[in-house]
């Protein structure tokens, strides 16, 4: 039983992450997967 | 580089458009054109011109152009705190009169005057346009009014002077129909002949003459001329002999403190404690535990010694456990010994009789939790919860070994990264980074490059993506392409965990490893630059280098912390998303495979799918010293995100496995590589193709698939050859491998590389001019 | 230096305030220099020099220029 609950939570988490990444890609986040150091969208 | 838009907090109807920072409205740089087009086409209701008070003369150059646009202008002089500190004075009322627009003093740093300036701009929007108060020399004014008469009538009145001046300057971005109206060119040529200068320079000079007068009337400097503090610092920092050593020392200190000392200490705690067995809160109880553990260990040693002695005397010990009484009878005369070494190196030999043996058997292993405030590590807590919920084994494995193992391995480096980010933020904020570009320019220039190529690399120390994008400022096409190709050689934030891991696990945290990675990156850039410059594709003169250097100033704690937080949180976010997903995928691929029973979970990772795929390609890396599938797979996963190299190792080497000292992960890793192979692995991952986000940026900047492939191919080939030489030569030096074919090959490659660097420059390839619509 | 002979900025003495007399080559680079404040009549002072590349004070600000530029500005 526990397997299903925990497994289910995991699957939901994964889907949420994928959705977030997809939405970020669409809104054109300048830094893609978010590298440390993109202060604002200005490359200067 | 973009415009940023927002709403004013004071009044939501007011929209604020932040335009790129520019010196003038000329049509030469992208920022200037963007700003200019916005102002001419969108016609905002008012302009807030923020000028640097410590630098008033040059900043006013833009102001004179803004007042000609026929839009209400409000000037806000920033950095008034710096001006006051220098003892200088600006007469703002007089300045307002001479410019023809309101002038406000603000200090963005201290937060003063901003409200007033904002309100003034909003008020100005309702009023009439600013009328420029300046006029040029008579002959210029004459020419301008002649041109003005020839302008078509559909130009609004308030913009007429602006267009007249731009026509006079032969501005390229002004509609060609305007510029080539009959008679205009003649007027311009006549004036140029009269004043013996080109029209643009004439206007520029005129502006500065006018500004010079304003400054004389309104600006009182306390100490005329002489060197400022910033200048004095610059004299030392950019001194021809001291500059590079100072730079090297600064970077060494930065990396030493963040990676080797503070970093390693905190990362150890994170790896062994937070993500390991656990830790004592504030160390409360550790001493007691260690004492108890030592005592326990002594007892086990006694047991082992006794059994060994018994065996030596011919007694069969296989029944020691099952039939202790019989064993005791047989071994009654056996006496073994153990040696205790005290802290002062003095030794003491203890006898172990059968009685001691039996007492020792009773000893209980001390439980960590019993000695003070023990906080179990995350894997332990999660493991217990999962057990309680009776979650299936495979899912437990996925969560503990896969997710926590992988992500935990990466997160373990967050403390180090934060410390490093603080340093980088400080270096940037105080102004030293700009000097570094200047210092590097001298080196770069010797090899046909310009210091401007170095700025993207500086930015790349944070993240390669904005670094690659920063190459846009380089006008020279060849230089720009070359910069794009080499920017990702410098270790970015994501590569830091790899460096720290290799330094910590395989070189016992030696302090030279981390800075060396940094210098390897720089060396790779310089060497690539030299080699590429000599090829027909890239030959040519380097672009001239002009850059403004801000005055040195202590950045505020707030700005440093904010920068550190921005970078840190995006790093953590990335760990929780991309890296999390990657570790799950890796875990599945590594733990599932084809066994005798068909497709399912495997016991030995070497039988999993990932091992199969990895082994198929691992041989490619054998000459580099790390031909095992684990390393090959780790390197490949780095293409998604460089942190994955660490994450993958975390999953594959059972990071979350609970061991006595928690160092098992690092210990396993160190058994995997020889020092030479480890460094070769490090170098390869530092230099090879960057993560997919960076590759995307390269593609966008190169604007050509062919060039993108060329860039990635070059980087990977370069990485391969260099790692090969590192491993071959390194192994010979460390004695692991004898001098052989590989060594000879490595030497040949090095010679080839040197040749590519010193051969004469090829004649510049004549490029076919491509006319783009 | 008095009238007649101009000296390239590249050869100017450190710490001495000079006045710009001429800038060679009418091209884009010259215009960019001008927008930074390098115009005839401006005062300029060399702060530091590194193999021909210089940091100079111009119009109260600090600008780094390469050797190629410094040889085109005459004081």
Describe this structure as you would to a colleague.
The complex is a heterotrimer of chains A (44), B (773) and C (75). Helices cover 57% and strands 0% of the residues of chain A. With 44 residues, chain A is mainly alpha-helical. Chain A has a domain at 1-25. The longest helix of chain A is centred in the N-terminal third of the chain and has 25 residues, at 2-26. Chain A is rod-shaped and about 40 Å long. By secondary structure, chain B is mostly helical. Among the domains of chain B are: 1-226, Rossmann fold; 228-275 and 412-477, no CATH class; 286-371, no CATH class. Chain B contains 33 helices and 14 strands. A 3-stranded parallel β-sheet of chain B has the order 3-4-6, with helices on both faces. In chain B, strands 1-2 form a two-stranded antiparallel ribbon. In chain B, helix 24 crosses helix 30, helix 25 (557-591) crosses helix 28 (643-652) and helix 31 packs across helix 32 (705-734). Chain B is elongated. Residues 656-663 of chain B have low confidence and may be disordered. By secondary structure, chain C is of the alpha+beta class. Helices cover 17% and strands 35% of the residues of chain C. In chain C, strands 1-3-4-5 form a 4-stranded antiparallel β-sheet. Chains in contact: A-B, B-C. Chain B binds chain C through residues 23-24, 26, 28, 54-58, 61, 198, 200-201, 204-205, 208-209, 212, 225, 227-228, 230-231, 234-235, 238-240, 243, 434, 437-439, 441-442, 445, 450-451, 544-551, and chain C through 14-15, 17, 23, 26, 28-37, 39-43, 45, 47-53, 55, 57-69. Strand 12 (546-549) of chain B pairs antiparallel with strand 5 (61-65) of chain C.
Mean pLDDT of chain A: 64
- Low-pLDDT runs of chain C: none
Radius of gyration of chain A: 16 Å
Unreliable sequence segments of chain A: 30-44
Helix and strand string of chain A, N-terminal first? H
Given the structure, what is the number of helices of chain A? 1
How much helicity do the residues of chain C have? 10-25%
For the secondary structure, the number of strands of chain A is 0
Tell me the major beta sheet of chain A. none
Give the strand tally of chain C.
Answer: 6
Q: Given the C-alpha coordinates, what overall shape of chain A results?
A: rod-shaped
- Average pLDDT of chain C: 78
Summed up, the domain count of chain C is 1
Please state the CA-atom Rg of chain C, rounded to the nearest Å.
11 Å
Q: In sequence order, what are the helices and strands of chain C, one letter per element?
A: EEHEEEHE
Strand order of the largest sheet of chain C: 1-3-4-5
Count every helix of chain C, treating DSSP H or I runs of 4 or more residues as helices. Answer: 2
What's the end-to-end separation of chain C, in Å? 8 Å
What is the quaternary state of this protein?
heterotrimer
């Amino acid at each position: 039983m526990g397997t299903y609950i925990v497994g289910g939570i995991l699957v939901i988490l994964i889907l949420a992450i994928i959705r977030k990444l997809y939405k970020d890609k669409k809104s054109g986040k300048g830094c893609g997967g978010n590298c440390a150091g993109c202060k604002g969208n200005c490359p200067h | 580089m973009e415009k940023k838009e927002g709403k004013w907090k004071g009044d939501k109807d007011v929209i604020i458009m932040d335009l790129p920072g520019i010196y003038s409205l000329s049509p030469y740089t992208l920022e200037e054109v963007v700003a200019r087009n916005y102002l001419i086409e969108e016609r905002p209701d008012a302009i807030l011109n923020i000028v640097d008070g410590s630098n008033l003369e040059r900043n006013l150059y833009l102001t004179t152009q803004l007042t000609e646009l026929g839009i209400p202008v409000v000037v806000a002089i920033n950095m008034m705190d710096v001006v006051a500190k220098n003892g200088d004075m600006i007469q703002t009322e007089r300045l307002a009169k001479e410019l023809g627009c309101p002038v406000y003093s603000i200090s963005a740093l201290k937060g003063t005057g901003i409200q007033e300036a904002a309100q003034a701009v909003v008020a100005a929007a309702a009023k009439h346009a600013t009328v420029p108060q300046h006029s040029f020399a008579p002959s210029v004014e004459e020419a301008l009014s002649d041109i003005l008469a020839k302008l078509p009538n559909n130009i609004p009145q308030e913009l007429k002077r602006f267009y007249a001046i731009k026509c006079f300057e032969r501005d390229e971005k002004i509609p060609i129909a305007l510029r080539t109206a009959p008679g205009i060119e003649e007027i311009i040529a006549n004036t140029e002949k009269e004043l013996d200068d080109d029209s643009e320079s004439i206007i520029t000079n005129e502006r500065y003459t006018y500004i010079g007068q304003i400054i004389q009337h309104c600006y009182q400097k306390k100490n005329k001329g002489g060197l400022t503090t910033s200048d004095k610092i610059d004299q030392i920092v950019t001194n021809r002999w001291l500059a590079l050593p100072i730079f090297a020392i600064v970077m060494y200190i930065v990396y030493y403190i963040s990676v080797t000392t503070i970093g390693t200490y905190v990362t150890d705690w994170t790896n062994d404690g937070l993500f390991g067995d656990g830790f004592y809160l504030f160390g409360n109880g550790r001493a007691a535990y260690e004492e108890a553990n030592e005592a326990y260990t002594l007892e086990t040693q006694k047991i082992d010694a006794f059994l060994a002695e018994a065996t030596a005397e011919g007694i069969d010990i296989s029944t020691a456990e099952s039939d202790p009484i019989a064993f005791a009878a047989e071994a009654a005369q056996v006496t073994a010994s153990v040696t205790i070494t005290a802290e002062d190196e003095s030794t003491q030999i203890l006898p172990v009789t059968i009685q001691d043996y039996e007492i020792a058997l009773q000893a209980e292993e001390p439980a960590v939790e019993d000695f003070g405030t023990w906080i179990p590590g995350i894997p332990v807590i999660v493991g217990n919860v999962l057990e309680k919920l009776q979650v299936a084994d495979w899912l437990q494995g996925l969560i503990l070994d896969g997710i926590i193992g992988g992500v935990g391995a990466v997160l373990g480096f967050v403390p180090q990264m934060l410390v490093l980010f603080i340093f980088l933020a400080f270096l940037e904020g105080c102004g030293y980074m700009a000097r570094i570009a200047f210092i590097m320019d001298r080196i770069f220039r010797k090899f046909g490059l310009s210091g401007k190529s170095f700025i993207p690399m500086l930015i790349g120390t944070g993240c390669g993506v904005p670094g690659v994008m920063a190459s846009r400022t380089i006008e020279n096409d060849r230089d720009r392409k070359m910069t794009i190709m080499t920017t990702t050689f410098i270790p970015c934030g994501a590569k830091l965990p790899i460096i720290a891991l290799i330094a910590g696990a395989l070189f016992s945290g030696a302090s030279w490893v981390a800075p060396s990675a940094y210098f390897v990156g720089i060396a790779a850039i310089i060497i690539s630059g030299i080699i590429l410059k000599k090829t027909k594709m890239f030959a040519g003169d380097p672009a001239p280098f002009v850059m403004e250097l801000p005055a040195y100033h202590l950045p505020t704690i707030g700005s440093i912390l904010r920068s550190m937080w921005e970078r840190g949180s995006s790093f953590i976010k990335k760990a929780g998303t991309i890296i999390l997903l990657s570790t799950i995928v890796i875990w599945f691929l590594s733990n599932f495979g084809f066994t005798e029973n068909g497709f399912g979970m495997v016991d030995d990772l070497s039988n999993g799918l990932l091992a199969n795929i990895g082994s198929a390609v691992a041989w490619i890396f054998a000459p580099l010293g790390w031909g095992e599938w684990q390393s090959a797979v780790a390197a490949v996963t780095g293409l998604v995100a460089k942190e994955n190299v660490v994450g993958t190792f975390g999953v594959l080497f059972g990071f979350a496995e609970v061991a006595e000292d928690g160092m098992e992960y690092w210990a396993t890793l160190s058994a995997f590589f020889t020092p030479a192979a480890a460094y070769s692995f490090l170098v390869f991952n530092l230099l090879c193709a960057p993560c997919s986000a960076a590759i995307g940026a390269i593609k966008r900047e190169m604007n050509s698939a062919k060039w993108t492939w060329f860039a990635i191919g070059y980087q990977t080939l370069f990485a391969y050859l260099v790692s090969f030489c590192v491993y071959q030569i390194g192994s010979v030096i460390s004695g692991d491998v004898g001098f052989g074919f590989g060594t000879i090959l490595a030497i040949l490659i090095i010679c080839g590389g040197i040749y590519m660097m010193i051969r004469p420059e090829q004649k510049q390839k004549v490029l076919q001019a491509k006319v783009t619509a | 230096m008095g009238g007649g002979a101009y000296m390239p900025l590249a050869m100017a003495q450190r710490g001495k305030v000079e006045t710009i007399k001429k800038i060679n080559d009418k091209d884009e680079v010259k215009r960019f220099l001008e927008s930074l404040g390098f115009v005839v009549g401006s005062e300029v002072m060399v702060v530091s020099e590194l193999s021909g590349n210089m940091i100079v004070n111009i119009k109260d600000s600090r600008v780094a220029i390469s050797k190629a530029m410094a040889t085109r500005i005459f004081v």
